[in-house]
Amino acid sequence: MVPPMSGLPLVTVLVPTFNRPALLRQAVLSACRQSHHGLEILVLDDHSTDETAGVARSLAEADPRVRHIRHPKNLGIVGNWRAGFGLAKGRYLGILHDDDLWDADFVATLMRPLEADPGLVLSFCDHKVIDADGSDDAAMTEEAARRFGRDRLPEGKLADFPRMALVDLSVPVGACLFRRDRLREDMLEDGARGAIDAWLVYSCVKTGLGAWFEPRRLMSYRTGVGGMSGSAPVAMCEGHFYRYSRILADPAMADIHPAIRWRQADTCYGYGVAMVLRGENATGRAQLWNAWRASRSPRSLIVLALSFGGPIGRRLLRALRRP
Fold first, then answer.
1. CA 149 to chain centre
2. Is residue 313 part of a domain?
3. What is the pTM of this model?
4. DSSP code of 135?
5. Same-domain status, 200 and 236
6. How many domains does the chain divide into?
7. CA angle (56, 229, 17) in 5-degree steps
8. Beta strand pairing status for 39-45 and 66-70?
9. For the domain that residue 208 is a member of, what is the CATH number?
10. 225, 254, 269 — which closes off a domain?
11. pLDDT tens profile 124-172
12. What pLDDT, in 10s, does the model give residues 187-233?
């Protein structure tokens, strides 16, 4: 057992969770095993209805740095994060998703640049991709690094934080350590919904401070367990659309507006597809038309045509989306 800390923790680890007790245990244990011990680990239980509370209590009994905070009602992802921000006491803060894992040196490694340079709002690392059983997926790991441009990033302070964070999407929140005193609860806006992680990165860019990249893969991102990206595409699309709209209304981000418009068009397409598949054709068609106007991509017109095909059109659309 780790002995209780004296004084305030240096790092707060937020672990938002809802109804995933087995994965939660693995995630929290990865935080407990950090080589840097000055942590508080807050399990933010969003009114789970299964055995999550019992698992969280057993983790807290085994390690005094772990606290179980169970909300009396479900707050949703934004409200849950906001509650965690309000409770955090550390100088630095990390957000460990309940299905992900941190390597033992994650905190110690990402804390060093923040300690050395007060001009940084966050530090982050590359990550591995693991499957539902926790096995490394080497091909997906390399693909993720390429897709988000981290394979081309040198170690050190980012040369263009706004573009890399908001256009290239190089900064994964679960692989970040943040400077706590630059984060406020009101940064977490309800409109961000399922894209709250990307919204937080935008809020960090808005501070005017920099970001540091560590190329080692010190976090494991788990796929195939029905997380936000798999179970709530509409909430994610709406959140991303909200974020891109706000960036486009932000004159400080004018240099990246052309690239953001393309990103928003892609979001409109994804949102439109999700709505058509739900049978909400009017909303879906409006978003697909917005995507067409922004990008002139024929895929938007194809899905738009399928939206008039009723159940048959939806079946064809599902068939087209299969890998």
1. 17
2. yes
3. 0.89
4. -
5. no
6. 2
7. 10
8. parallel
9. 3.90.550.10
10. 225
11. 999 999 999 999 999 999 999 999 999 999 999 999 999 999 999 999 9
12. 999 999 889 999 999 999 999 999 999 999 999 999 987 654 444 56
